[in-house]
């Protein structure tokens, strides 16, 4: 029996004791998770620094732990409300019955995390899993190995170690886990592995949530405030060295504003990361050489308008803007997931919408404009996991909004109550009384015309 099989068996056994059912227990575990994040903030920041060269503890707090803490606090506060039976509208037939939806735990959930925000993307689904009363096997990404090790060492000191074990390892270990039977698999990562996860899940008819990536377009209206728009885009694109699933992947704008967009982004890069981002403490690195080479290769054949410097020994790529890119350029063949921002010029909104709709549905569609009608057209004429107008990334911080993709960018959403519902079984409950049998006579055979009232 493999280590992974043993872990899953132990987790299921622990789940079957029923200890996760009382809300008090769930809240207590969520409080422990919160205590872990607050007490180990420094250790978490150190691990993230080693994994992704994020130097400042504040940067890690802002992008990893702050949202996580908010999610945990919300779940602690609201789990009573989320888990309560949900009465539904009655009809004449159910007027004297009890009719409600009862959220119930699914069982044992497998959470497979990615490396780019190793704490947020791995522990946020765990918040929903715990709140919904599940047990969970947690598999952090091997690429962010320092964070994975810390999670493995420290989480069992805070959470019930039989119900929420951490399994570390690489592809082999993940594949061994995927052979086991789970009640839900929550995967965050790329589309190729997403398909493998879904195939493995199909063997046990296990439902999946796939939080994937894609190329999120960003349309800039020529009449908008380019200074503010480019400030927000520069921030959203280059934070974490472009390794953010919801980062704007490329810009669509009219040719008449392309050089102004480049100029505004140039100013913002200088303001945020100085003239020399390589030596600046808030500018990150590509996670490893494989990804470094992949991002560099994507730039091939395009015209560099800004940046372009690189240093393989440090996995450094300067904040880079490419201009006059076309839909068939190499950089448009896959999600960039690095600090490279192509600009594609279009004749106007119609062409931009056509360009977006010819491609896979993205995780986010971004639009910058003062014109509400224009924004509304982008909303109604495109499809994506989320739509954000006049800003970048921040929709992910609104816990009332579901976070997730559609089509190629993923399936299933989470965050706040959406995470609770995603990892719950919404059980239909109808409780009738054994009296008033006469009203049922019509449904019992023989079905005579007299009984039917004809
Ligand atoms: P990764 O390489 O760390 O893979 C994620 C997990 O998949 C790891 O735990 C790994 O062990 C496992 N894995 C890798 N290859 C496997 C295989 N052949 N079989 C089984 N398991 C395997 O992460 P990644 O995929 O490079 O992450 C980056 C991608 O994730 C980007 O596309 C990004 O957009 C996406 N992402 C999406 C979200 C979201 O919320 N939608 C968040 C973060 C990242």
3D structure, described in words:
It is found in: Endoplasmic reticulum membrane; Microsome membrane. One of its GO terms (biological process) is fatty acid metabolic process. This is Aldehyde dehydrogenase. Belongs to the aldehyde dehydrogenase family. The protein has two domains: 3-212 and 414-426, Aldehyde Dehydrogenase, Chain A, domain 1, CATH 3.40.605; 217-402, Aldehyde Dehydrogenase, Chain A, domain 2 (3-Layer(aba) Sandwich). It contains 15 helices and 19 strands. The protein is globular, with a radius of gyration of 25 Å. The chain is 41% helix and 18% strand. With 454 residues, it is an alpha/beta fold. Helix 5 (120-131) links the parallel strand 3 and strand 4 (135-139). The strands form five sheets. It has a seven-stranded mixed sheet with strand order 9-12-13-8-7-14-15, sandwiched between helices. A five-stranded mixed sheet has the order 4-3-5-6-17, with helices on both faces. The longest helix has 27 residues, at 57-83. It binds nicotinamide-adenine-dinucleotide. Nicotinamide-adenine-dinucleotide binds at residues 112-116, 121, 139, 141-143, 170-171, 174-175, 188-190, 193, 196, 211-213, 245, 335, 337, 363, 405, 410.
Output the keywords.
binds nicotinamide-adenine-dinucleotide, seven-stranded mixed beta sheet, 15 helices, 2 domains, Aldehyde Dehydrogenase, Chain A, domain 1, Aldehyde Dehydrogenase, Chain A, domain 2, five-stranded mixed beta sheet, alpha/beta, 454 residues
Proportion of residues in extended strands:
15-25%
CATH architectural name of the largest domain:
3-Layer(aba) Sandwich
Q: What overall form do the CA principal axes indicate?
A: globular
In the CATH scheme, the class of the largest domain would be: Alpha Beta
Strand order of the largest sheet: 9-12-13-8-7-14-15
How many individual domains? 2
Structural class: alpha/beta
Helix amount, in percent? 40-55%
How many strand segments?
Answer: 19
Q: What summary fits the major beta sheet?
A: 7 strands, mixed
| First-last Cα distance | 67 Å
Number of helices: 15
Bound molecules: nicotinamide-adenine-dinucleotide
- CATH homologous superfamily (4th level) name of the largest domain: Aldehyde Dehydrogenase, Chain A, domain 1
């Amino acid at each position: 029996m493999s280590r992974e099989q043993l872990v899953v068996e132990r987790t299921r056994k622990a789940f079957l004791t029923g200890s996760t059912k009382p809300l008090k227990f769930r809240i207590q575990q969520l409080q422990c998770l919160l205590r872990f994040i607050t007490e180990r903030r420094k250790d978490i920041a150190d691990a993230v620094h080693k994994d992704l060269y994020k130097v400042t503890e504040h940067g890690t707090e802002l992008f990893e732990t702050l949202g996580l803490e908010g999610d945990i606090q919300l779940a602690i506060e609201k789990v009573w409300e989320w888990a309560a039976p949900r009465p539904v509208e009655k009809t004449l037939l159910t007027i004297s019955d009890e009719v409600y939806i009862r959220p119930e735990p699914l069982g044992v959930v497998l959470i497979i995390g990615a490396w780019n925000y190793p704490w947020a993307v791995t522990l946020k689904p765990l918040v929903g899993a715990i709140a919904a009363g599940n047990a969970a096997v947690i598999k952090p990404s091997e690429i962010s190995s320092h964070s994975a090790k810390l999670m493995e060492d420290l989480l069992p000191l805070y959470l019930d170690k039989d119900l929420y074990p951490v399994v570390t390892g690489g592809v082999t270990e993940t594949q061994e886990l995927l052979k086991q039977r789970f009640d839900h698999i929550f995967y965050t990562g790329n589309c190729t592995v997403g398909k493998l996860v879904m195939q493995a899940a199909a063997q046990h008819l296990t439902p999946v949530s796939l939080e994937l990536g894609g190329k999120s377009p960003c349309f800039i209206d020529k009449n908008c405030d380019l200074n503010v728009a480019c400030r927000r885009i520069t921030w959203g694109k280059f934070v974490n060295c472009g390794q953010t699933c919801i980062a704007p992947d490329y810009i669509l704008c009219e040719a008449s504003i392309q050089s102004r967009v480049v100029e505004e982004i140039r100013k913002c890069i200088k303001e945020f990361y100085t003239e020399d981002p390589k030596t600046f403490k808030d500018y990150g690195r590509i996670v490893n050489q494989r990804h470094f080479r992949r991002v560099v290769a994507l730039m091939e054949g395009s015209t560099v308008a800004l940046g372009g410097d690189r240093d393989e020994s440090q996995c450094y790529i300067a904040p880079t803007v490419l201009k006059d890119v076309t839909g068939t350029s190499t950089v448009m063949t896959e999600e960039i997931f690095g600090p490279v921002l192509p600009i594609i010029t279009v004749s106007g909104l119609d062409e931009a919408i056509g360009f977006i709709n010819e491609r896979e549905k993205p995780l986010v569609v971004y639009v910058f404009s003062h014109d509400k009608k224009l924004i509304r057209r982008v909303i109604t004429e495109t499809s994506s996991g989320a739509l954000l107008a006049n800003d970048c990334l921040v929709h992910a911080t609104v816990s009332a909004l579901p976070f997730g993709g559609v089509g190629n960018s993923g399936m299933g959403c989470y965050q706040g109550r959406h995470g609770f519902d995603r990892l719950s079984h919404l059980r239909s409950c109808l409780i009738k009384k054994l009296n008033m049998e006469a009203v049922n006579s019509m449904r019992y055979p023989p079905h005579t015309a007299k009984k039917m009232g004809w």
